[in-house]
Amino acid sequence: PHDPSQPTHVHVVVVSCKGLRGADFTGYSDPFVEVGAFGATKNRRFRTKPRRQTLNPSWNTNEARFLVACDASSSDDGGGGGGGGVPFQGLVFSVFDKDLGSSSQFLGGAAIAARDVPTRGRWMETELTLTRSHPRGAIAEAETDAKVAGKYAIDPGGGRGGKDSSTDLGFLKVRVAFADDLLDALVSKPLLVPREGKFTHDVAMGLGLKTRRVHVCVVAGKHLVSADDNGLSDPFVQVALDNSPASAFNSRSNRTKTARRTLNPVWGGGRGETFTFARAPGASEVQLRLWDDDGGLRRSQFLGIATVPLHEAPRDGSWSDNLTVSLFPDGPSQEAAHSGQCMGHLVVRVAAASPSPKDAQRRPKTKPGVVGSTPGGGESEFWPDLSAPPPAPDAGPYVNKVTSSTFVYFQICGTRDLPTYRRGPEETTNVKATVALNSDGHVHHTAVQAEVLKDAVWMPEVCSFPKNPNSSTVTVRVYGNLTKLWDPTVMTDMVRDVTMGIVDRGESDADADADKKKSSRYSQSKAAKTKATKRSRWDIRAFGPDLNKKHFALGTLVGEVKIPVAGLTPGETSDPRWLPIAPVRSDDDTVPGWLPPPGAGQGAD
Q1: Domain 9-197 grouped into CATH 2.60.40.150
Q2: Residue 97 contacts by C-beta under 8 Å, 6 or more apart in sequence?
């Protein structure tokens, strides 16, 4: 039996890597991540599944979850540890490239000190900079085996483990927390010692660990992004915990009803729709995914995700106040918040009794990272679990008050110093742009600027978007080297020659206007004969008016410009100004030779 007042394990979730170096001849890697406590032996370190041919891998956070024992001492059965009084120094992460038929190549390492791991139900998501080797003592076998030590370090001479002396190895994003939620389960089963390793919802349930209940009430949405052509959406919300099994994310029982044609929905007549989940150890947050229901056989469109940390719910299990949480396309990360990609807001309530002991706030501080060092011992009292949702607040139905929208008008005036795949000062190219406001789902495509030079004035064209409190950034993406797919003038000449004049493009509106302006009797007679002749021909316009337009294939993305609009006031205008075009390419993208390298100028518009 162990001391029930001190966490014995740490939860670890591997999220993603970015900017890894390519270790294969293809220029990419097949990365996986190894996780363990500082000084853990081989059988106490655990791996994610490898990702194929990428430098920016990401893992399913429902699956890449591990339970690491604080006691890193050797164990014959690979069990949970936690009872030997061994100091917990922290966590060690190693990123490798998976090679079939040979040993994996080390891509970089990182560590988190024990003092930085949060407790009392709080989690930390952090991005770690990968280094060329681990500190002394991080890998147990490396202290006595030079071969193992070499495996966990990059050779500065350019051997199999590395290619040069570069220190830019990329980043690793993980989430960690002390496993306080195991304390309640271990008190009820004092002889149970959870095993280290993969620790998903199904694994926790298979161990028979005690679960608690989490109640979530989805009340309303505010200023949601529009997804349909009518400028509105048909939103519904899918609710789950971050460690819920995959079936929970696909179940229709965990989603609200669809609110039709609105950007400010209210569910349950203002009282909300309530969902209840089993909280297995390892859960850290409620995840709310917003979708647009397109109906029929069409697949619903994902709009954004919002989260509510469970530690923010009242510890006694009562309802929280109405929480307004923001939606982001890739989760509420700091990066997304700074790039102005808010997709709207949800109003929710959460009730979740804390699995930590009641005296967690008053417990005397222990020596950081030492298992079983809490003085006093004794039984800890836990908050009761509420199997049914608490009574609803007495405030009555929720009234959704929103701010009316204004509009943002935007125009591209021209470009200069735009890179083109052709060489020479007089060479022309075909260019277009897309314009989007972060809070609106509609993307405006400008007309193609055909056969223009790298310095060009664009045809006047104004884009308009509804602006709400979430509107912060207009993003303009410029595409070059567009290939012409259909030219009506060329096709008309070719078809007329092949069919001996039977098939014609037909009379355009400009031709008709020109005929009306002819005043002489001879000209009018000639125009009448020409018109009669054209009526006898097979008019190609019968196939649709688009045949009278030029059509282009979408070209190569040159770069983008982000323009802040949050500070604009109604009626305010800005003078035309030149803005640099920044590249938007990941390490996995193939860059055309005619585009300048990252960091160089991409032109301006």
Answers
A1: yes
A2: 23, 24, 29, 30, 31, 104, 105, 107
